[in-house]
Design goal:
By secondary structure, the chain is of the alpha/beta class. The protein has 2 domains: 142 residues, Rossmann fold, CATH 3.40.50.720; 75 residues, Alpha-Beta Complex (L-2-Hydroxyisocaproate Dehydrogenase, Chain A, domain 2). Helices cover 42% and strands 18% of the residues. The strands form 3 sheets. Strands 3-2-1-4-5-6 form a 6-stranded parallel beta sheet, sandwiched between helices. Strand 4, helix 4 and strand 5 form a beta-alpha-beta unit.
Amino acid sequence: MTVSKITVVGAGHVGASCAQRLAEKELAREVVMIDVVEGVPQGKGLDQWESAPIEGFDTLVTGANDYEPVAGSEIVIVTAGIARKPGMSRDDLLRTNADIMAKVSAEIKRVAPDTILIVVSNPLDVMSYVAMKTTGFPRERVIGMAGVLDTGRYRSFIALELDVSVADIQALVLGGHGDTMVPLASYTSVSGIPLSQLLPQDRIDALVERTRKGGAEIVGFL
């Protein structure tokens, strides 16, 4: 169902990509990007909107440096915070990003008190808690996106290993967004065939470990 407005806080790589996907899928009539760096959300928003005739979407994409345009957003997605660098764990980001999340959450509560908040910033589990405590929103309105991302990584690694379509893989990852996540290998199947019948245990263990370290693997290339 298309909503009226979705706001993305943070216009970096993740935030800008998120805004573009939202627009291309027409999940809202308007997507707003917010960032503290002057000109960045405005420029990226304009660039994405100018692609609308080519990609065939009508979602308006705009940018701003203040939080007033967030008002009326049914959903706010927070990607703001410093990014991980090679060698950093998600927990290394804790102090700095907790301060950023608290400030962002307070502004969101002020201008969009009825919104649903989706947290992307790392370390995700702690940032989701900070957002919930700062806003006072009920827990069902503060959502961390980790489960979908970690499950997607797990499925993509299995697809590479077996040279099959990701659509054929049924899998689920539970737990926190970090080294303690739990890919449910015993409940993983490919077109209904248990993964244990297709791969030896050492390869399954390697895929589970790669999933747990998936974020660090990407950061290592950047």
